[in-house]
Amino acid sequence: MRFVITPPREARAESDLFVLLHKGEIVVSATGGYLHPLSDICPLLKQSALSMLGEWQGVAVWVGIIDDLPQGVTTAGVRSLLMMASPDEFTILARAVQLTHWLGQHRFCGRCGTATMAIEGEMARGCPACGLRAYPRISPCIIVLVRRGREALLARSPQFAPGRYSTLAGFIEAGETVEDAVHREVFEEVGVRIDNLRYVSSQSWPFPHSLMLGFEADYVSGDITPQPGEIEDAQWWTPEALPDLPPSVSISRLLIDRWLAHSR
Ligand SMILES: [Zn+2]
After folding, report:
1. Which of 192, 232, 242, 244 maximizes the CB count within 10 A of its CB?
2. CATH number at residue 255
3. Which ipTM was obtained for this model?
4. CATH code at 49?
5. What are the residues facing 59 on neighbouring strands?
6. pLDDT in tens, 57-79
7. Does residue 122 have a known ligand-binding role?
8. According to the annotation, is 120 in a ligand binding site?
9. What spacing in Å lies between the alpha carbon of 63 and ligand 1's midpoint?
10. Ligand 1 centre and the CA of 147: distance in Å?
11. Binding site annotation covers 112?
């Protein structure tokens, strides 16, 4: 049974599973697991306020933060765990990281400064003084593979590992449609006009709270002109001669692999 997000509940059961974070990393047991049974983490629960993530295989999954790391456990970086995660594990980890990040940034009301409280039955924080509610923040981004015949446009940002190229991506602005964001980002980053947008799929990317909306589009006009400071280099690539590509867990790689499958 797939992981599903359910309304949060208060009571914990013996069979529940727990994801714990310590200083921004995931707590990992001696055997490498990070979905801890209640029996293993009973002493740690005293440290942690828990939030329910959802249900997986009929069992509730919770997340909490611990300040002190006991002996016998260690931590692992979120990115490294995501690289090896199954789709369900990816969702659980992405949700755990995003919710704890959001909770840490919404301890006080943004309007009047009063300490916020959990709202029963909802994933939300409420202000007991003025009634303002805060919900987990999600930042939608577009990510797009631009095609020109058999070629695809891949670019690299200055932060990428040497030799790596990826699809174009950027945040959707307030008040902007998804489609307009795709056209704007492509023109801003590489100076190219596109059309015929095709939605492909989406992916949560918890660094810290992006929702990637993946598209394909067709080249219309313009010469590649990399945006200074954002794009170090951008080129048209054929399936036969590719640069270093993003890891297979990423939606950018999914878009690239999909293009390759259709081009060969
Ligand atoms: Zn308030």
Report:
1. 192
2. 3.90.79.10
3. 0.99
4. 3.90.79.20
5. 56
6. 989 999 988 888 878 889 999 99
7. yes
8. no
9. 26
10. 49
11. yes
Is 25 annotated in a binding site? The answer is no
Together in a domain, 87 and 180: no
pLDDT value at residue 40: 72
Which token pair is 106?
């919404």
| Final residue before a domain boundary, out of 105, 128, 162 | 105
Q: What type of residue is 192?
A: V
Q: Which residues pair with 233 in a beta bridge?
A: 156
Other CB atoms within a 10 A radius of the CB of residue 248 amount to: 10
Say whether both 144 and 257 belong to one domain.
yes
From 105, 128, 149, the end of a domain falls on 105
Ligand 1 ion local residues (Cβ < 5 A): 109, 111-112, 114, 127, 129-130, 132
Annotation-wise, does 221 bind a ligand? Answer: no
**141 annotated to a ligand binding site:** no
Q: Which residue stretches of 73-177 are H helix? A: 78-84, 87-105
Q: How far apart are CA 68 and CA 31, in angstroms?
A: 20
Q: Could you tell me the distance, in angstroms and rounded to a whole number, from the CA of residue 126 to the centre of ligand 1?
A: 8
Query: For residue range 133-174, what is the model confidence (pLDDT) as tens digits?
Result: 999 999 999 999 999 999 999 999 999 999 999 999 999 999
Rounded distance from Cα 166 to ligand 1 centre (Å): 43
- Residues of the domain holding 64: 17-105
